[in-house]
Specification:
It is a single chain. The protein is α/β, with parallel strands linked by helices. 36% of the residues lie in helices and 25% in strands. The chain is built from eight helices and nine strands. A seven-stranded mixed β-sheet has the order 3-4-9-8-5-6-7, sandwiched between helices. A two-stranded antiparallel ribbon has the order 1-2. α4 packs across α5. The longest helix has 15 residues. The protein binds zinc ion. Zinc ion (ZN) binds next to α2.
Length: 207
């Protein structure tokens, strides 16, 4: 199976929602892709932890197996599969020909998976923005995590020493899923609270 995957750079996939077979670079067929957007796109800016969040899809509590399957699947996918969602995001949320200097920032994930970085990078590529991944999670030791579940939830990032934000730059922290906003807040703080800061997510998951 691994060999087949290696030989076929654009494997035939079934639509994750309806099962129809198509050569897809994403997980829904055209029809289900449009349906997901129609059903879950919400054009309002969300405020979490005092930060402005723009999100392509809003996931209402206790709803949508489709979105949870999408999140799970996308965690392991390569950069190119993120592009279609980044394009959908860009169409809805960004003014065309925006000339503001913009830097899209990602954080490394503590799991070592690249989903957050892929989302950020595909947004930057699609919009012609700069991209950086200067944030690394600070690991709390295992005993502390076991003793205190709250400590496990609280995020903290350390920032690469050579990283600085150019003057008059809009900073976008891109994360594939935003729920409590704690990760975004930790990023905002690690970046020393830039004055022009937004959070861009594929999915905003309401609690
Ligand atoms: Zn379908």
């Amino acid at each position: 199976m691994e060999l087949i995957k290696k030989l076929n750079p654009f494997p035939l996939r079934a639509c994750m929602n309806c099962g129809s077979w198509l050569n897809l670079r994403t997980f829904f067929c055209g029809e289900c892709h449009a349906k997901a957007l129609e059903q879950f796109y919400s054009p309002k800016i969300i405020q979490v932890e005092g930060l402005l969040v723009k999100s392509l899809l809003c996931w209402p509590p206790g709803k949508s197996d489709v979105l949870s399957a999408l999140v799970l699947q996308m965690k392991n996918e390569k950069l190119r599969y993120w592009n279609i969602w980044a394009q959908e995001f860009a169409i809805r949320w960004e003014e065309p020909n925006n000339l503001r200097k913009t830097l899209v920032v990602a954080s490394e994930s503590s799991s070592g998976k690249k989903h957050g970085e892929n989302w950020a990078q595909s947004l930057a590529q699609n919009l012609g923005f700069d991209y950086a991944c200067p944030l690394k999670p600070v690991k709390s030791d295992r005993r502390q995590r076991e003793l205190n579940r709250q400590a496990r939830k609280a995020r903290e990032f350390k920032i690469s020493e050579d990283f600085s934000i150019p003057h008059r730059t809009r900073v976008i922290f891109a994360d594939d899923v935003v729920t409590t906003g704690r990760t975004a807040l930790a990023a905002f703080e690690a970046l020393k609270k830039p004055s022009n800061f937004e959070v861009w997510s594929l999915i905003y998951r309401e609690l």
